[in-house]
Amino acid sequence: MSRRIVRALSLVLLIAVSGCGGGASVETLAGLDGSALDAMAKRAETDGANCLVVLKGGELVREWNFGGSSPTSLQEGFSTTKSVASLLIGIAQDQDLLSIDQPASDFITEWKGTKSEPVTIRQLLSMTSGRYYDFQTDYAQMAFFSQDKSGFSIGLEQQHEPGTVWEYNNSATQTLEVVLKRASNMAVNDFAAQYLFGPLGLSSRLITDAAGNAGLYAGMQTSCRDLATLTQLVLDQGTYQGKQIISQAFVAEAIKQSSTLKDDYGLLWWLDPSGAYYMSGACGQVAMAMPQFDVVATLMRATDLSSPQSLLTCGGESSEEILLEGINAASIGG
C-alpha cells in the first residue's frame, strides 16, 4: 500500500474516532496527545494561521485549515523558498552539474575578474558570501521593484571578503538562480518541477519575474501539505517512497552548522538547539522537522505584500515556538 493511501486512511480513521464523543485516542494519534495538538491548533488559529499540518513517522496525524483555506490552497511561502533552493542545488550536485565548493563565477561569468570571483556556491548557501547588503537594496529594490531580480542581484558589488561575515541576504541567494539555470541548461522552475516537485507529487511552483527568472530567495507558491512533504523528505535523508531524490550526504550537510560565524544556520536551513531544523519565511511560514519525536509540523499564515516593511511586521507569535512547544506538549513521554 502506498504512503499516500496510508495517509488518507489515517485521516479517515482519525475523523471517525474523533466523532465518537470521547475524542481520539492516544493510539490513533501515533503517540501524540490529541488534546495537546488541539491546544496548539487553537493557539495557531488565534494567532492568524491559515493551516497547520502534523506528520509522525511520515504519516498524517492531524490537519487544520482556517479562514476559508483548504488543504490544497497555495500561498506565498516567502523564505521557505530558500530551503527548497538548497535542495535544488543538492540535486544538481548529485547530477554532477556543479559542486557546492566551486566558485559560483564558473557559472556567473560576470563575476570573473571582480572581487566576487572567489565566492563559492557553499558561501551563497551559508549566507557567508560577503555580497552587498542593505535593507533598502535587498527588500525594496530587488525583492519588490526589480523586474529582473537575478540580473539585479548578480550586478551588486562585493561588500566583504568571502567567508568573513554572516549576513542574511536575499539578493545573494537569488544569484543561485543563475548558477542553477546555467549549470543545468534548464529554466529553474522546470528543473524544480522535473526533479523535486513532480517526483513528490506536489502542487508547489516557483513564480517568475518579468525577465523569466524563478524566485529562489522567495516566491514559492505552496501549502502546508507540500511543505510537510518537503520537510519529511529531509527527515527521511532524501528518500521518498523508496527513491533517493537527494543524496543522503547533501541532506546531512544542509542541516548541520555551515559556518563558525553562525551556529543556528545550515545551508539555507535554520537549526534549533533542540535538534530540530526548519524552513522559515516572513509572516510566520514555517516547516519544521523534529527528529527527536519523528515529527514534521508546518504552519502558514495569511500574508501581507503591501510594502517591504510589511514583511518585517506581518505575522504574530513565533511560529517556531508554537510548533516546538506544541509538539513537546503532545509527545507522550517526550
End-to-end span in angstroms?
Answer: 30 Å
Helix residue percentage: 25-40%
What CATH architecture label applies?
Answer: 3-Layer(aba) Sandwich
Q: What structural class is derived from the secondary structure elements?
A: alpha+beta
Mean pLDDT: 91
Q: In angstroms, what is the radius of gyration?
A: 20 Å
Main β-sheet, in a few words?
6 strands, antiparallel
Total number of strands: 11
Which sequence of strands runs across the widest sheet?
2-1-11-10-9-8
Keywords:
single chain, 334 residues, alpha+beta, Beta-lactamase, 6-stranded antiparallel sheet, 3-stranded antiparallel sheet, 12 helices, 11 strands, 14% strand, Beta-lactam-related, Beta-lactam/transpept-like, Diverse_Enzym_Activities
Report on the architecture of this protein.
There is one protein chain. The chain has 334 residues and is of the alpha+beta class. The protein has one domain: Beta-lactamase, CATH 3.40.710.10. Helices cover 39% and strands 14% of the residues. The strands form three sheets. The protein has a six-stranded antiparallel beta sheet with strand order 2-1-11-10-9-8, with helices on both faces. A three-stranded antiparallel beta sheet has the order 3-5-4. A two-stranded antiparallel sheet has the order 6-7.
